[in-house]
């Protein structure tokens, strides 16, 4: 697998942020999106480092670690550094969305690899 798969994870975080901001009527400015995405993008980078995701980025095990770090560290950064809210409902929605999207493409890759292995 390639390191460029990090783009899928970055895309998942950006979709999460843009959808959330849109649902709450927030401005769709680059600065606003970056402010909201910032803690999660930083945490995502830390998740990739902690799990050494570049070695096997499509692994579900790696994905689970990336989700845990992205949500956990992202919420801490959001609260303490970015001075934004971390209500329980937000934490639950963020966890569900990011788990679905960060693990979803990995599950799709696993299924595709298994189907290809059966064909050969």
Can you characterise this structure?
With 120 residues, the protein is mainly α. The chain has one domain (3-119). The protein is built from four helices and no strands. Helix 3 (60-80) packs antiparallel against helix 4 (88-119). The longest helix has 32 residues, at 88-119.
Q: Which helices and strands, and how do they pair?
A:
Blueprint: H1 6-23, H2 30-51, H3 60-80, H4 88-119
Helix pairs in contact: 1-2, 1-4, 2-3, 3-4
Key traits:
single chain, 120 residues, mainly alpha, 4 helices
Number of helices: 4
| Radius of gyration from the alpha-carbon trace, in angstroms | 15 Å
Enumerate the spans where pLDDT stays under 50 for 5 or more consecutive residues.
none
Measured as a percent range, the helix fraction is over 70%
Strand content: under 5%
Order of helices and strands: HHHH
What is the approximate shape?
elongated
Overall number of domains: 1
In total, the number of strands is 0
Q: Sheet bearing the most strands, described?
A: none
**What would the average pLDDT be, to the nearest integer?**
94
- Quickly give the structural class: mainly alpha
N→C terminal distance = 19 Å
